[in-house]
Structure formats: structure tokens, C-alpha cells
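User: I'm writing a short methods note and want a consistent example. For Rieske domain-containing protein, I'll paste the sequence; you return only the C-alpha cells, no commentary, since I'll be parsing the reply automatically.
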Amino acid sequence: MFYFIELPKKMPPSVSEISDFSYDYLCELRCSQTSEEHLQFSFSFFFFFGSASMDLDDSEQDPEIKEYSSVCVGREDDIKKSERMTAVVHDREVVIFYHKGEYHAMDIRCYHSGGPLHLGEIEDFDGRPCIVCPWHKYKITLATGEGLYQSINPKDPSAKPEWCSKGIKQRIHKVTVDNGNIYVTLSKEPFKCDSDFYATGDFKVIKSSS
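Assistant:
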């Protein structure tokens, strides 16, 4: 069995040395059969650089630093008919879903590439209801905002794909019902979600009525 390692000619600086750039990497495994007895594997490491100036200001990315009041976004009867609605809550665009008797609210833009989640379909994966982004089919759990994906062990040809979680990627917001009205309270969780990047005015999808 032969292994080939392909590395970049110039390795990126260490994390402590990076001031103007941030980076991530992708490891790709290629497998090809060179003969009946041998398999050839090659590993490629790719480093992606992006300007740190693209990051949002901390005050914009951290909803927890503000105290948000609940905002009425519509009537319970209306969302039960349409099963979803969009709203702007304290200048943040959200989508509210009504699915199997439960309400769920999250950032309207997909964490991956800003796809419009209010246009996606709800499907069950691994027993968990998810909204599927219409752009790239990313699957996000309605209850927790986790990104789900299927993985398989390449060393075990008989292995079946298993559902795994990437962790919380989409910011989830609180929905309450009072006297037939639907209220949304923005999340105050003290961590940053990938969807925070698209929750700004530059990526608005709800058209103003004015």
C-alpha cells in the first residue's frame, strides 16, 4: 500500500502570528486502484485565507451584549395556515416555522452561504426535523440549529453512512404565544454562530413595504 503526501510549498503562519488573515484547511483523501493487490492513497491539504476585515464587528456579531425585548410578529391563526412566516426583529431577519404543533425561529439566511431558508423544505433526518437550504441542500435542525451531515468510514467498505452533527451553526430564537399573538425574542446565547455573518443589512431578503 502506497501513501503520497502533498503539502503546500509555503505553509501558513502559526495562529499566533496571524494578524490580518484568518485561515482554514481542508484535507482531501483520494483513493485509486493501481493493481489487483495495491490501493494508492493520496492526501492533499488546502489552506484558504480570508481577510479578517470581512469579519463583523463584535458588537454586531454578539447578540448577547444587548437586551432584546419580545416583538409581536403575527397572529397564531395565520402562521398555522402558512406554516411559516418571515419577520424583522430588532433589525435582524428571522423565519418562524410551525411544524407538527411546535414553533421554531431562526436566522433567515443559511449559515453556509446565505441561502434563503424560508424557501426551503422541512424534512426529517435521523428522526430530527430539519430545514433544507434550497441553495446547497444543507440540513439544519429546527430545534437546535445544528448542521447535520452523513459520514462513512473509508477504511470499512461495508460501513453504512451515519448522521453526524457539525454543532450549532444557525442561531435559534425564542418563540412564545400570548393571547393568539406570536412573539419572537432574539437569542442571547454567549457564543457566535456561523449564521451571524449573514444577519446584517448587507444580506437582507425581506423587502421593505415603503
